[in-house]
Amino acid sequence: MKIRTLARTLVVTFFAQCISLDAAIVVEKLMHHRSGDNKNVLELPLELGKVVFYLSNEPHVTALKEESRNNKKVASFVLPDIALTPALNQMLTSLKQSNSAHYSVNISPVKNPEQGLLLSITYDPNYVTIAHDSFVAIGMQKGLVFYLYNKKLLDTIQNKELPVLQTACLDKKKSSIVIDCGHGGNDSGAVSPSGILEKEVALEIGKKVSQLLTKQGYQVHMTRNSDATVDIDDRTTFANTHNAGLLVSIHANFAGNIKASGVETFFLDGALLKQQDSLQQVMQGYKTQLYKSNYVLSRCLQEKVLSYVKTKNPQVVDRKVKKAVSQLLIGVTMPAALIEVGFLSNLKESYYLKDEEYQNLLSKGIAEGIVSYLTNLC
Ligand SMILES: [Zn+2]
Asked: Which of 76, 87, 258, 348 has its CA 20 to 30 A from that of 287?
């Protein structure tokens, strides 16, 4: 009898552990995208920062409380059922601390009221307002994003009825351009069967694009111009603090199907985000305009790159422009697109991607796509 009870207890414990492991949500990535520390908040973008969680399952967020502490507010949210793993501890330690004078973010594991993560945002309510959305990311992870909006800028736009475009970092005339060469350093990205590295292809093309645009008088910033390791949230913060008019990220693709080939361009669209909070009208206007710009920029790039590449590779496949949430695209405050210039998993295309003449055509296409976007020619 006792043995049977013990056995039953063991079985129940075993299943309970399985169930609790199943139920636990794993944090796969945690990002803090920032927009700089300018004391004059009116010179900062509408989005002062974003904290983004990439999770194995859809989380339930509980807004715990909002309290006042010496002219500041502290908003607390709980994410229950989060697996408290060593990897998560590592992420929490290396979370980029806010360098904003206007808010600070703290995330810590908690046991009460439920086991999970406690997110506390301390902010000056005169300068910051908070909202959150959820989404499904490019790697099918479930995402959760907390936005820290620039309240002073929102109020200024609203009160003076200023056009959102000219004040919210979407102004094409602010034509400084950020070129992001994917991967780098420790992160090779995709590798072709013959050993061609995505990080090298992206860097070669990015440098050529930068030269072409600089020659035409544009101011270009590169998130890396050597074989350096650069974290995604450092790339986004770099772009956001350079007050750029647009960002283009350059990558090469990889697929299990070795026949897959061609060019595709990704952009962030609001349809991918499940809006959790009702936004002020001016914010809606800004987002609508941002998503539209993302689409137009992507279309310009896709069209121009294909037209150049076809001269050498007439069979190139147009894989079109596609909506996606990537860690980079969601992290930046300006119109942005991520172009996959070809497949390293496809033998023929991988040799094209390594070929300097082909890289020149890709670069001309990207540079021309950017200029067409900036001059409303596509
Ligand atoms: Zn890549």
From this structure: 76
- The answer to whether residue 19 sits within a structural domain is no
Q: Is the pTM value of this prediction over 0.70?
A: yes
Which residue matches tokens 């002073």? 152
Residue 84 inside a domain? The answer is yes
Distance between Cα 216 and ligand 1 center (Å): 28
What is the whole-number distance in angstroms between the Cα of residue 27 and the centre of ligand 1? 21
Tell me how crowded residue 86 is: count the other CB atoms within 10 A of its CB: 7
- Which one-letter amino acid corresponds to residue 309? V
Q: Are residues 155 and 181 in the same domain?
A: no
Residue 31: give the domain boundaries.
27-159
Please provide the DSSP assignment of 122-171 as one string: EE-TTTEEEEEEEEE-TTS-EEEEEEEEEHHHHHHHHHHT--HHHHTT--
Find the 12 Cα to ligand 1 centroid distance in Å: 45
CB 301 within 8 A of CB 340: no
Rounded to the nearest angstrom, the distance between the alpha carbon of 249 and the centre of ligand 1 is: 9
Q: What pLDDT, on a 0 to 100 scale, did the predictor assign at position 98?
A: 62
32 contact partners, CB below 8 Å, separation of at least 6: 49, 50, 51, 52, 95, 96, 97, 98, 105, 233
Higher per-residue confidence, 14 vs 323: 323
What's the 143 CA to ligand 1 centre distance in angstroms?
19
Residue that is last in its domain, among 159, 190, 216: 159
Give me the chain's average pLDDT, please.
Answer: 87
Separation of alpha carbons 367 and 300, rounded Å: 10
130 shares a domain with 258: no
Residue 81: count other Cβ atoms within 10 Å of its Cβ.
16
